[in-house]
Design goal:
The protein is mainly alpha-helical. The chain has 2 domains: 2-205, Fumarase C, Chain B, domain 1 (Orthogonal Bundle), CATH 1.10.275.10; 211-298, no CATH class. The protein has helices at residues 11-18, 28-46, 71-82, 92-106, 115-127, 145-155, 170-176, 188-193, 197-227, 237-243, 246-258, 277-280, 282-304, and strands spanning 2-4, 24-26, 86-89, 130-131, 134-136, 160-163, 166-169.
């Protein structure tokens, strides 16, 4: 069980939810903090404060005040107006990741959404209901507006989803899974779509696939060493320690561990003096690849746990 809190969601936890279908829940402390954050929005509305996108129009219409009785409709209209993506839908792995990452951004408590909204995300994730989200139409940056609008439709019982291997009307899927649809309150439409979760989800899934590929590459490299009676001296720890690149050191150590006590590898001079570059430079080549992937991982983990909404004053 992955518990969503105000803390950090790791890429390993994302992997467990997306690929292993691990269930998700919301911590009790986070529910309390979300309620407090929501009360901030309600209090500001009661004081008739002007707040962008909450009781005003959007973009060029930010100076247009919205009547109190129209605030909920404003949020729904925002979703409808931006759900205009085109092209083939993202794979279910991407839309499932988007559900998790957007929920994770909102639980930080800076967006003023109700706990009920997060619970709706969690219900869809745990039921395996994944929004149909067109791949084309996003601005990126904090403007994954179109993809996130299509995601938001699923929370409301609108649009289409993938469920049990079928593409279907969202209300049918929610009915089959016994999940009621929800309606949006002031601020929540804006909070749902002001984010980077489309491009971040694509990046996360690409990273997870690359991470798996590099681990497989090390196993393939080890098998190649055995198949060609490779010389293990090239993987000696001290040699790579002198070079100093940690990822290179780590690759040499892992392959040495895989091939420990192998009867198919050799030592220098037993068959040949040295192997071709493609064998003796395996740690250097794969080490450089790991450096790149680790850099990407660092940036993705920051973005996975970032708040990209127009935030309330922290914990105000």
């Amino acid at each position: 069980m992955i518990i969503l809190t105000e803390g950090t969601l790791s890429l390993d936890e994302v992997k467990r939810v997306v690929y292993d279908n691990e269930q998700v829940a919301l911590s009790q402390d986070t529910k309390i903090n979300l309620t407090s954050s929501r009360n901030t929005v309600e209090n500001m509305l009661n004081k008739k404060k002007t707040m962008y996108g909450i009781n005003t129009g959007f973009g060029k219409f930010s100076d247009v005040l919205i009547a109190e009785e129209d605030l909920d409709e404003l949020q729904l209209n925002l979703i409808h107006s931006h759900a205009c993506g085109v092209g083939d839908p993202f794979p279910e792995t991407i839309s499932r990741t988007m559900l998790l990452l957007r929920a994770n951004a909102l639980v930080k408590g800076y967006s003023g959404v109700r706990p009920q909204l997060i619970n709706q995300f969690i219900a869809l994730i745990n039921a395996g209901i994944h929004p149909v989200i067109p791949q084309q139409g996003s601005l990126g940056a904090s403007g994954d507006l179109a993809p996130l609008s299509h995601l938001a439709l699923a929370l409301l019982g609108e649009g289409e989803v993938f469920y049990n291997g079928k593409r279907m009307n969202t209300m049918n899927a929610l009915r089959d899974a016994d999940i009621p649809s929800i309606t949006l309150k002031a601020k929540e439409g804006l909070a749902l779509i002001n984010g980077t979760q489309a491009m971040t989800s694509v990046g996360v899934v690409a990273f997870l696939e690359m991470d798996k590929l590099l681990h497989q590459s090390e196993l393939i490299a080890a098998m190649t060493m055995e198949g060609l009676n490779g010389i293990m001296d090239a993987f000696d720890h001290d040699l790579h320690q002198v070079r100093g690149h940690q990822e290179q050191i780590d690759v040499a150590a892992r392959i040495s561990e895989i091939l420990y006590d192998s009867n198919l590898t050799t030592r220098q001079g037993e068959i040949r003096v040295q192997d071709a570059y493609s064998l003796r430079c395996i740690p250097q080549v794969l080490g450089a690849s790991w450096q790149t992937v680790n850099y990407v991982k660092e940036k993705l983990e920051i973005e996975v746990n970032a708040v990209t909404d127009k935030v309330l004053h922290p914990k105000s």
